[in-house]
Amino acid sequence: MKKITIAVDAMGGDNAPHAICMGAAEACRTFPDIEIILTGDENKIHAILEPVPPEVRSRIRVVHASEVIGMDEHPVVAIRKKHHSSMKLAMEMVRSGEAQGFISAGNTGAIVAGGVLIVGRLPGIDRPALGTALPTIERPSFMLDMGATVRCKPENLYQFALMGSVYSRKILKVTDPEVTLLSNGTEEIKGDECVAGARDLLMKSALNFKGYTEGNDIVWGRSDVIVCDGFTGNVALKLAEGIMHGLKSLLTDEVKKSLLAKAGMLFMAPTVKLLWTRFNYEKYGGAPLLGVRGAVLKAHGRSKEPAILSAISAARNFIEEDGVEMIQAELDTSPTHMA
Amino acid sequence: MKKITIAVDAMGGDNAPHAICMGAAEACRTFPDIEIILTGDENKIHAILEPVPPEVRSRIRVVHASEVIGMDEHPVVAIRKKHHSSMKLAMEMVRSGEAQGFISAGNTGAIVAGGVLIVGRLPGIDRPALGTALPTIERPSFMLDMGATVRCKPENLYQFALMGSVYSRKILKVTDPEVTLLSNGTEEIKGDECVAGARDLLMKSALNFKGYTEGNDIVWGRSDVIVCDGFTGNVALKLAEGIMHGLKSLLTDEVKKSLLAKAGMLFMAPTVKLLWTRFNYEKYGGAPLLGVRGAVLKAHGRSKEPAILSAISAARNFIEEDGVEMIQAELDTSPTHMA
């Protein structure tokens, strides 16, 4: 059995450190092949881990970190200066090889900056991409970039497509994944210069490229991999989350106001819950940062215990499937700068 | 009573010409101060107008157009070459002053191209913007650009903010509208170079600028005017429409599968319908193309009769409130190139 070590930033996210530590313990209970290193305030972490049974506890190591990178801090500055932060210490373990994977629910920008500056990019990769498996109607779609690289050159989008395709094939087990570029319409004449440039590169590539996709196609899951820049991906993901939260909040209010609706909800609750679960854009169980030399995953800032378990499970899967090596192999055999 | 003439492209949109003609007739019935010029296949239009009562019919003029600009045609090429198209003929009436307003549910790109090439830009405006009043939870937000100008310079976004602010104040009757820029996060360090450049211009302007807004804020309506480039706006609007359609379709399927849910829907139907109506992103009743010398409005491609009536009503309102002159006056007193 291959031993897998995952470094977890215990202090990042809205529900840290409690949900992070308990999620990590749950992951150790679930997967007998993993070990976890929790970085953060050791007193707090030890207290949280108190009730964890010894056979699980023995596979969790706590490494004290005296600093935390806040959600609003400047990512690059924080990663460069906060040498004793829980995030930086955990990432350094990936660089040194002490851990193969890293999870944090903290500052996304700092995770990306640390991915590049500490863990390091794969040779041939200019910019990393944050991917996420989106809930859709027909099939799960893997979308990238969700915010790592704000604006892109055509070559960046091309590399994202390459990495997304490997991830879809090797990790999500999709045969010959269909790749599309997110644009402002499906017709060839749509897109800006950058998207059009990426389209040209993808047309010439060996990927199963299906052209442009538009906003509503995201929902239906009309392709396996959707590629966009980090600005657009971030706006789209947050909008989708916002609509689901908005509808939930309005539905709750309306049901409170109407006796009829209240009665209906008694029967409808399972259906509403099913739709909510299916379209919960927050439940993506860890977004991999692709293009770096390790399994670096970002968990949602609002992650609770199950989301942390799910992110650790995704990291474990990525490591077990040699995700990084697979992407590297694909890069080695494909031209990365086709222009 | 100021007489208002609106030229309507009878052939554009999924439900043309029937829904367009009947919507126009309904508008004449509703507003005694308007006259409508319908451009398109005169035989078809006359046949559709057959049942319209004479007192309404007398305020509708039909102008024959032998060509139609299709949904997939190249916008600029179509506008330049199809001299006898229903869209071009209607737009030329705005240029000549024969009509003050124009409506089409057809090819969006062609409407934008025609707005610039036929109707003409306002002096000082580099690029036009397509705006739309979005359904939100707290208050309606006016968002622009939804697809007229794919990628922007900071100066374009600044002008969109200026025009959106005038539209919000004069047409939507919002006092001192709050303006935000859509970005990949609310913190100052977010945004690409263009958004950051626009932010600098807006900070120095007299507008009530409130900084960045992110994807989920769109849903809650946290500002009166949201500014973005046409690429981002188009992806966001289509995604929002797609989510609502996806949920509707899933809900219908689930209710069919479950007896319990079917029973619940008997009670819940009014609530579900209310949510659907409130969040129907297609029902924006005509998106104004701001920055051109006339009331040019785009109706949704799927518009039926009520949506056409609503778009004509919006055009009438825009003309009555001197929308174009108001924007021009604002441009004249504000620096449009502050950089």
For the record, the CATH class of the largest domain in chain A is: Alpha Beta
Q: Provide the succession of SSEs of chain A.
A: EHEHHEHHEHEEHEHEHEHHEEHH
At the fourth level of CATH, the homologous superfamily of the largest domain in chain A is Isopropylmalate Dehydrogenase
Question: What is the alpha-carbon Rg of chain A in Å?
Answer: 20 Å
Oligomer: homodimer
Measured by residues with Cβ under 8 Å of the partner chain's Cβ, the largest interface is: A-B, 65 and 65 residues
Beta-strand proportion of chain A? 15-25%
Class by helix and strand content of chain A?
alpha/beta
CATH-defined topology of the largest domain in chain A: Isopropylmalate Dehydrogenase
| Molecular shape of chain A | globular
Query: What is the count of β-strands of chain A?
Result: 11
Major sheet attributes of chain A: 11 strands, mixed
Number of helices of chain A: 13
The average pLDDT score of chain A comes to: 91
Question: Mind explaining what this structure looks like?
Answer:
Two copies of one chain form a homodimer. Chain A folds into two domains: 1-125 and 291-322, Isopropylmalate Dehydrogenase (3-Layer(aba) Sandwich), CATH 3.40.718; 131-283, Isopropylmalate Dehydrogenase, CATH 3.40.718.10. Helices cover 49% and strands 16% of the residues of chain A. The first copy, chain A, has helices spanning 18-30, 42-49, 54-57, 75-81, 86-96, 108-119, 154-170, 193-204, 215-220, 230-257, 259-278, 305-320, 323-333; strands spanning 4-9, 34-40, 60-64, 101-104, 129-134, 141-144, 178-182, 208-213, 225-227, 287-290, 295-298. An eleven-stranded mixed sheet of chain A has the order 3-2-1-4-11-10-5-6-9-7-8, with helices on both faces. The mean pLDDT of chain A is 91. At the A-B interface, helix 9, helix 10 and helix 11 of A face helix 9, helix 10 and helix 11 of B.
